[in-house]
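quick one
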Amino acid sequence: GQSTKPPPNPSPLRSAKFFQANMRILVTGGAGFIGSHLVDRLMQNEKNEVIVVDNYFTGSKDNLKQWIGHPRFELIRHDVTEPLLVEVDQIYHLACPASPIFYKYNPVKTIKTNVMGTLNMLGLAKRVGARILLTSTSEVYGDPLVHPQTEDYWGNVNPIGVRSCYDEGKRVAETLMFDYHRQHGIEIRIARIFNTYGPRMNIDDGRVVSNFIAQAIRDEPLTVQLPGTQTRSFCYVSDMVDGLIRLMEGENTGPINIGNPGEFTMVELAETVKEIINPNVKIISVENTPDDPRQRKPDITKARELLGWEPKIKLRDGVPLMEEDFRQRLGVAKKA
Ligand code: NAD
Ligand code: UDP
Ligand code: UDP
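structure w/ uridine-5'-diphosphate:
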């Protein structure tokens, strides 16, 4: 005989539970470089609803065009220096210009974004009981006297220099995070991000990897700022996003360094880009800007041990992926 079992009819309680199983995630600065890659990854999980707030200072809707109109996605034009009322379970707080050209353009606005923006997001986290992750920066170590940099190093930062709006701003943001944690029991996560690169970086934002790749494609000389022996460590954006999500989902507040420990001088970086993209391009020396850190390389022992994370993409593999994106946006095909 045929089964007379009735079709499943979920009780209102069960549907409410199912609904609650959805995770509502706020990403501030989600229209930017790292933020938009983070949104891509979060949207792949069907249990996530993602809300982006961004004032489009350095980001663009174009970075999120694949999600506009999606039922689990919302985009709000909003400046985080103003209060924000939304109901969410997690907050990835990225909003802040990251490139020196942009953060020095309006330094007062940069420090307001770091201080008032982070305060508002913490007030929001407190009201709704959300966990909040701050993307801090290796710049909190300043021109470091400890190499490679471990999280317990307090840094060597100029409090009144032209970069201070950014690095001191992030240091205050970290302080606010820990004070809300200690005083109000807010669940916090702090990532100290080291130089990150990849597709969707602003082409003319002045950062070294985007500069060299755009210059090599345009057949313009690669501008190594003096002395050229200063070092940086470059993390590909997919590795970065993976580290941020592991930190958010894990049990440790941080701060935790997230970056690629492969260390290069700017001359070595120029030579690598030249070899991969345009062997005929010139490399020239130009003036540097004040307070440029001489060396920077993360110690990622904590990320390895506490998050089970380490970067997978080497610079030599990441540069061609970024070249492809830049060629498309610049409309310059690779010569056969
Ligand atoms: P980005 O400039 O591409 O993105 C920042 C986003 O924040 C942009 O979309 C911008 O429009 C938005 N924004 C800026 N001020 C805002 C405000 N007041 N209100 C609302 N939105 C605002 O930079 P990114 O490289 O994606 O960096 C993201 C985060 O990671 C930043 O917090 C940055 O400090 C941090 N970080 C980045 C790097 C790196 O190498 N890219 C290194 C260390 C730390
Ligand atoms: N805030 C916000 N959204 C909220 C709750 C608070 O933007 O949902 C802002 C609020 O306007 C304040 C900041 O967060 O400027 C800090 O809030 P908190 O409640 O911690 O401090 P208070 O309002 O008591 O100064
Ligand atoms: N730099 C360079 N040529 C450029 C742009 C930057 O040599 O066209 C150098 C700069 O002097 C610094 C390093 O690259 O030592 C990284 O600079 P960037 O602005 O990318 O990031 P930072 O780590 O300083 O925030």
